[in-house]
Amino acid sequence: MTLQQKYLLATVRDDEESWLQVIDHSSENRGYEYWQAKQSLGFWYLNQSRFIECRAIFKEFAQFESSNPQRAVIGHAGLASLAHRSGRYGQSQKIIDEQVAPLRHLLTPQMQKRLDLVKRVNLEFLQTLD
To answer: Is the distance from CB of 40 to CB of 19 less than 8 angstroms?
Structure first.
């Protein structure tokens, strides 16, 4: 199978094995499919409550601060979502406010909607503490 075929199959299956096959197949050139697969795998891990693997992927993305702001903001968005899922609403909101908000326009509309929900729940929870 070609890389594009593996990527298309992974988008349909949306499972760990399929995403890892795309990553392994494209690890030398690290093009579009590689980074999309890494991002998708990170959110797959988040949805499966596999927080250690999730954190490793999004930390890798976040390290692209100056060289690739879009990857960096995806990493911070993933880390904010992870903190939220782990019940660390204050930390999640701080990441959103300080790291994600300035580059929000670089996120896909789907990811923006996801973060809007995370932010709303964070703020509701934090208001109950006041």
So the answer is: yes
What is the number of other CB atoms lying within 10 angstroms of the CB of residue 76? Answer: 25
| DSSP one-letter string for 36-94 | HHHHHHHHHHHHTT-HHHHHHHHHHHHTTTTT-HHHHHHHHHHHHHHHHHTT-HHHHHH
Question: Residue 64 CB: number of other CB atoms within 10 A?
Answer: 16
Which pLDDT score is estimated for 52?
A: 96
Q: How confident is the model at residue 16 (pLDDT cuts 50, 70, 90)?
A: very high
Which of 33, 28, 32 lies closest to 9, judged by CA? 33
pTM for the structure as a whole: 0.91
Using CA atoms, how far apart are residues 60 and 20, in angstroms rounded to an integer? 16
pLDDT tens digits, 38-89: 999 999 999 999 999 999 999 999 999 889 999 999 999 999 999 999 999 9
Separation CA 50–CA 52 (nearest Å): 6
Domain boundaries, given as residue ranges, for the chain: 1-48, 58-130
Q: Which residues touch 104 (CB under 8 Å, ≥6 apart)?
A: 73, 112, 115
